[in-house]
Write a structure and sequence with these properties.
Blueprint: H1 2-17, E1 56-57, E2 64-65, E3 70-73, E4 80-81, E5 85-87, E6 93-95, E7 99-105, E8 114-119, E9 153-160, E10 167-174, E11 192-194, E12 200-202, H2 204-208, H3 210-214, H4 226-247
Parallel strand pairs: 4-8
Antiparallel strand pairs: 1-3, 2-7, 3-6, 5-6, 7-8, 9-10, 11-12
Length: about 260
């Protein structure tokens, strides 16, 4: 019984060890797949090193700048905006006032940060004491006003004399007259309304009654008066025709030389 049970298993082992027949050889050939050795998408085929971003200082110390001038370009906050400077969204520091550039540190604000500022006088140092007087902006310079009285002007006026042959000159003193400046009387604006541009202005109904306040009489509009409407329409049409005539360009006539 044991021999009969082992026969099929041994026969299978022998059959598996036999070489395959020639008829099955084309179906048992190995399938080879070749992978790409170079990436075709993404950052592989693009520029390996892009152009420079031109970072760094654009204005040196004690250099004159005007509002809007770029002083320093950077990635990150290596430098911070100080007096009369501001920083853009790409960390660019630019001037907000006219003056001279200065690089400094302010231990009162931060012990390690470096600041860039603009001063109004060359050689001025930052930081300034908080109790010191503020400097003038926009390049203005303070000067003392003279309190002396105005000196009279000497003017020579020639006078003609019938008895004398020549002309005599007479010196007259003309004192300076101070002109009195008339103050414009501005009527008080009531019912001021803040508009979309955050500026106060008069209400529309108040502007519409400006003629009434000035005493100007206007004929009341009567919708049933068709004759007046016809006259106004004819007047508008006449003015439009006159404008078209004046705007029409004059054509230049071409002169042709005819051969005789």
């Amino acid at each position: 019984m044991a021999q009969s049970r082992l026969r099929p298993f041994s026969s299978l082992l022998l059959r598996s060890c036999e070489p395959p027949s020639r008829s099955l050889t084309p179906f048992l050939t190995p399938i080879l797949a070749r992978n790409a050795s170079h990436s075709t998408e993404g950052r592989a085929n693009k520029a390996k090193q892009g152009p420079g971003k031109r970072l760094g200082a654009k204005k040196g110390a004690s250099e004159l700048v005007v509002p809007g001038n770029i002083i320093f370009r950077q990635r990150g906050t290596h430098w911070f905006p100080g007096e009369n400077c501001d920083m853009g969204r790409d960390h660019t520091i630019f001037a907000t006032q006219k003056g001279y550039v200065t690089y400094y540190k302010d231990p009162d604000k931060h012990p390690d940060r470096k600041y860039i500022g603009v001063v109004f006088e060359r050689g001025m140092k930052l930081p300034v004491s908080p109790h010191a007087p503020r400097k003038r902006r926009l390049g203005l310079v303070g000067r003392e006003m003279s309190t002396a009285a105005p000196t009279p002007v000497v003017q020579e006026v020639p006078e003609q004399d019938s008895a004398a042959e020549g002309t005599d000159t007479k010196k007259t003193f003309v004192a300076l007259k101070t002109k009195k400046q008339k103050k414009e009387v501005v009527p008080p604006h009531q019912d001021m309304v803040m508009g979309h541009s955050y500026s106060y202005r008069e209400a529309n109904w108040s502007i519409g009654r400006a003629a009434e306040r000035a005493g100007v009489k206007v004929r009341e509009f009567d919708p049933r008066d068709r004759f007046m409407a016809w006259r106004k329409r004819a007047k508008r049409q006449r003015e439009a025709r006159e404008k078209r005539v004046t705007r029409r360009p004059t054509k230049k006539r071409r002169t042709t030389n005819k051969r005789k």
